[in-house]
Amino acid sequence: MTWIYLVIAGIFEVVWSTTMKLSQGFTKIGWVIATIIGMIASFAGLIIATKHLPIGIAYPVWTGIGAVGSVLVGSFLFHDQMNMMTWIFVILLIVSIIGIKITAGH
């Protein structure tokens, strides 16, 4: 269950980074509220996960999910342009997140 909380926290990391972009510099109050809610949910999930996982495992997975998710949202929702090398590094990040999970022993 701890890993589920961590994954959900990572997803909310993507939510708040996306809604922050949509807030247009915190000028759209609805998106600002969504950003704050996403941040609270993301941090809450990380806090719960670190009760049972070492911070050295939980934090990189949490940030990795947020990073990969934000790259995907940027690419597909905001049409950010990324070259092939960037995508290779995103794939390496995914492999790293999976590797941490597999080798963590928790």
The averaged pLDDT comes out at 96
Distance between the termini: 11 Å
Extended strand count: 0
As a whole number of angstroms, the C-alpha radius of gyration is 15 Å
**Principal-axis shape:** flat
Major sheet details: none
pLDDT < 50 runs, ≥5 residues = none
SSE run:
HHHH
Number of helices: 4
**DSSP strand content:** under 5%
Main location: membrane
Protein name: Multidrug efflux SMR transporter
Family: Belongs to the drug/metabolite transporter (DMT) superfamily. Small multidrug resistance (SMR) (TC 2.A.7.1) family.
Pfam families: Multi_Drug_Res
Protein architecture, described:
One of its GO terms (cellular component) is plasma membrane. InterPro entries: EmrE-like (IPR037185), Small_drug/metabolite_transptr (IPR000390), Small_multidrug_res (IPR045324). It is a multi-pass membrane protein. Keywords: Cell membrane, Membrane, Transmembrane, Transmembrane helix, Transport. With 106 residues, the protein is an all-alpha fold. It has one domain. Helices cover 80% and strands 0% of the residues. It contains 4 helices and no strands. The longest helix has 22 residues, at 55-76. The chain is flat. The N and C termini lie close together (11 Å).
